[in-house]
């Protein structure tokens, strides 16, 4: 009886489809590559709206709003069980949450100083570094060199007004945080069932960032319109893309997923142009293309040797 109730896509009282089944059916009707593209656009739209909040709130307060909104939503759907956790589980979960807080804080500080496309391109060096570090192929040196050339093109050697050294520094910290996030995410996946590891990490992250975010945001955090935008940023940046990526990974090879994700810096630059009017120079577009090409090359080369 219970199994039938769980599998039945219709509400037995009204005869109407269950909301969950409608969402799954809608997701299943979209090709997995389309889900990944939607997830990428969702993340970057969230970053774009977050950057618009910087006019009213400092980056640390916006991070607090985003992570808290994401933690509340994720916690409601994937409540982590704390009873019976070993100390190693706690260590992984707490480290995961701390990394998530520092990664997002660094990225938003970079975003406040750099155009979106540039900040995301530099941050993307994190997963590229993890992929190259796990490899023993000489060809990966080509991709490292290409990525380094991209960063060199982005550096404000001539005192560019749109790029600051402090912004690049924060973006590099975000890249290191993303690399640590990847490793800790895998560790949490082995110790926590389903998505409860991420939910646990987001709750920890919200607690860690709360003192800084609440102090810098002050009474402005209580404005209803800012809270609403913060909720939207949390949905677009965390909940929606993670759900879409999870659905896509169930239906496509991981190497194809990695190739599509390599397009994220280019999408960030496009969103920056369309949403924030952040026009980039030819040299900056060339730098983003170098980093995207390095990520694509590394992912495709890894697939060929398997």
Give the topology, please.
Elements: H1 2-7, H2 19-28, H3 32-53, H4 59-77, H5 87-111, H6 116-123, H7 125-133, H8 140-154, H9 165-191, H10 196-217, H11 224-249, H12 254-261, H13 264-276, H14 282-304
Helix pairs in contact: 3-11, 3-12, 3-13, 4-5, 4-10, 4-11, 5-9, 5-10, 6-9, 6-13, 6-14, 7-8, 7-9, 7-14, 8-14, 12-14, 13-14
Low-confidence parts lasting 5 or more residues at pLDDT below 50?
1-20
The domain count comes to 1
Spatial separation of the terminal alpha carbons: 45 Å
Proportion in β-strands: under 5%
* DSSP helix fraction: over 70%
Class by alpha and beta content: mainly alpha
The number of helices is 14
Spell the H/E element sequence: HHHHHHHHHHHHHH
Tertiary shape = globular
Compute the number of strand runs: 0
Rg over C-alpha atoms, rounded to the nearest angstrom: 20 Å
Biggest sheet statistics? none
This entry's quaternary arrangement is single chain
The mean pLDDT is 83
Domain EamA: 166-297
Family: Belongs to the EamA transporter family.
Protein name: Inner membrane transporter RhtA
Pfam families: EamA
